Amino acid sequence: MTDETDAHDHQHEHGHEHGHGHGHAHEHGHDHDHGHDDDDHEHGHDHGHAHGHEHEHAHDHGHAHEHGSPESFDERAATWDDDAKIARAATTARRIAEEVALTGTERLFEYGAGTGLVAEALRDRVGPITMADLSAGMRAVAQAKIDDGRLAGARVWDIDLATDVVGDAEEFDLVVTSMVLHHVKDLTTTLAAFAGMLAPGGHVCVIDLDAEDGSFHGADVDVRHGFDRAEIASLLEAAGFVDVHVSDCDVVAHDDGDYGLFLAVGTAPG
Ligand SMILES: C[S@@+](CC[C@H](N)C(=O)[O-])C[C@H]1O[C@@H](n2cnc3c(N)ncnc32)[C@H](O)[C@@H]1O
Predict the structure, then answer these.
(1) Which of 25, 35, 58, 261 lies at a C-alpha separation of 20 to 30 Å from 103?
(2) In the structure, what pLDDT confidence band is assigned to residue 254 with cuts at 50, 70 and 90?
(3) Distance CA 78, CA 114 (A)
(4) Atom 25 of ligand 1, nearest CA residue
């Protein structure tokens, strides 16, 4: 099965059917190997620190793809999984399981799933898994994990919740999005989409950077500089979530210091 898109129940906001990717193999994973940092880029070299250093510099290497763009993630997909990010995903999954009582049957939707690291870490604690990402390269790596059994039975969707609408036929019990929302411009629409996809009593889990000074990605990267915890709570409440609480998730080590990650949990009203 090479159809990564499987977006049969999606309807594009503008009326035309989504799911154009049926049958596309998306053999991306092209490795340009610029050998440099990029937005969210984490070097392969090992600094010998327990939880690994994550480098998010925005050096100007004059390459074509805007930092943080889907294409820049395409280029990094093949080498995305490293010890630091695998450990971060394990911590994230553990913290989610500590905050949300999981039965092992939850229909999980992970938005901005990248290569599926968090989904992999949650795999044995939830039910069916659906992943979405804007980057074709990331989706191709996730699809390869489905094909080789690491994420057996999961689905990968090519959707942008700022513009695409997930049909009523799809419903989830858990929505997870990790290190993604700082890239998302239209948070109101995206968070409302999460709320609309969840069954009553379902949970959203947002993992992201605490408010920072912009040094995580660097000055020329157009991303949000993390979130104030009260701000993310307000955004979730404005999207209709109840029982919103925000707690510590992890700390990402960086050359310039440590960056806190929060876990915000909200419940879809019953
Ligand atoms: C920092 S990576 C995190 C990947 C994965 N969640 C993880 O923890 O390893 C951000 C991911 O979000 C995706 N992304 C960025 N903007 C997005 C958007 N507006 N909608 C969906 N995915 C997006 C990128 O393609 C990338 O895979």
Answers:
(1) 261
(2) confident
(3) 11
(4) 135
The secondary element (H helix, E strand) that includes residue 259 is: strand 257-267
264 φ/ψ angles, rounded to the nearest 5 degrees: -105, 130
Measured in Å, residue 114 CA sits from the centre of ligand 1 at: 5
Tell me the C-alpha distance between 69 and 118, whole Å: 21
Q: What type of residue sits at position 57?
A: H
Residue 155 has phi, psi (to 5 degrees) of -125, 150
Tally of CB atoms within 10 A around 72: 22
pLDDT band at 50 (very low <50, low <70, confident <90, very high): very low
pTM of the model: 0.81
**How far, in Å, is the centroid of ligand 1 from the Cα of 181?**
8
